[in-house]
Batch of 2 targets.
Target 1
Amino acid sequence: DAGVIQSPRHEVTEMGQEVTLRCKPISGHDYLFWYRQTMMRGLELLIYFNNNVPIDDSGMPEDRFSAKMPNASFSTLKIQPSEPRDSAVYFCASILSDSIPLNEQFFGPGTRLTVL
Amino acid sequence: GNSVTQMEGPVTLSEEAFLTINCTYTATGYPSLFWYVQYPGEGLQLLLKATKADDKGSNKGFEATYRKETTSFHLEKGSVQVSDSAVYFCALANAGGTSYGKLTFGQGTILTVHP
């Protein structure tokens, strides 16, 4: 099992540029989560999907952020235009909702984004 | 709404010392409780979990007991190792309803263990 795959692992860009982060969940998992982690704000849930449909995007900071899940095996988080305050580690996680009690979330290794 | 409060860090211990990281929660219904660990440069991974009152989760020498009466899920280890140095997150999730699968995390506690 390859686990949750994220790319790129590191991204350095200049303010104003578009940034696209990618995530491949574990095969068969039907929930996908995007998080952002910073020293100041800790771990924040940005958005999550169930069966490719966005369920809750209340954590998305502003219109510059958008997320899509065109199919069960791929999701993107896009920032356009990027700003220095977007610098953070972005994590993707997935779960399989096949039973109660709740299964664990499996996290990817994260993408470290630096906006100069 | 749901919330999780962890003890302030960072925590610094010598090898073989006893570890306690406090975690209390506020939630409706009967949440599942988790401890996740994040090693340097990595994503979070599940350390242990408990799904109902009085359950004890355990893994790698770590333990935590789901205490409904005190709404707590404190993490303990009898003898820490240098390799336990990481950030520890307490979290809860409600199994049903529109928030299914969504985790509420505490702020994280940095643990450093010295030889």
Target 2
Amino acid sequence: DQQVKQNSPSLSVQEGRISILNCDYTNSMFDYFLWYKKYPAEGPTFLISISSIKDKNEDGRFTVFLNKSAKHLSLHIVPSQPGDSAVYFCAASDGGQNFVFGPGTRLSVLP
Amino acid sequence: EAGVVQSPRYKIIEKKQPVAFWCNPISGHNTLYWYLQNLGQGPELLIRYENEEAVDDSQLPKDRFSAERLKGVDSTLKIQPAELGDSAVYLCASSPGTGGAEQYFGPGTRLTVT
């Protein structure tokens, strides 16, 4: 049973437009969430995080929104750039040191 | 600052053979993780170390997998004997160990079992 779901395996967006990547979770004990970006042949790299005490966190072009009641979070990238093309993983933790990862969404930003 | 180092980057072995992966975490990071990543899926935790102690190995298939982190720095993950289904990318990550800290991943070792 997947505790962290990313139901869109892939997403294509035009350069300059907004990319919205979605993530749903089932475990109500999760209280800390992260997004990672992964390029081919590299390990995932940390992008942005959010604690359950917040509903929004922003870092430059990247904003994460958390809706606790819906157990849903989303990553917004605006404006999208070709270098953003990668696989994005959502991860969640229940406050411990272990994180559960979603299956990832492959983002393609078209020039 | 050097990142997480893993070796080898690629390994091809025949089934039933042993294989070992090595990880050197970021200096000062007390927590070390080994993950398995299958194609099209996210990383799945195999084992987590706090210094030299394995604090969560509940997902490690102990009949064939073993890991160690002597002196609380470098770590090795071993599979003996390897099976066809073990073909995957094995990722090592480390974190400073504070609550909620993000993890820093190495590039991974891609294992192919034939």
